[in-house]
Specification:
The protein is mostly helical. The chain has helices at residues 8-18, 23-30, 34-42, 49-59, 64-72, 78-89.
Length: 98
Amino acid sequence: MKSQSLSIAEVIREERKKAGMTQKELGKRLGVTQSMIAQYECGIRTPKIPTIRRIADVLEADLEPFYYAYYCAGKIAYDALREKIRRDKGCERCCTKY
């Protein structure tokens, strides 16, 4: 997956489909409606970082593409991106490409 070219909405949609989950199933697991997931995937609403973490956890997906999409969208600063990846993954390797 080329996360560099994907928006936050696209990352959510792609990761959900990779996990074989419907919007309704993801919403149920997160405690939100299918409509909220659709809004995230259409770019109408942008989930906050804690919600992104929950989405990635439910989908058993890597956080890096989500955070990188946040960074590309200007939603998070470079240093904050590096720190969040380092803290969430405990991995210096993940930060070297940013």
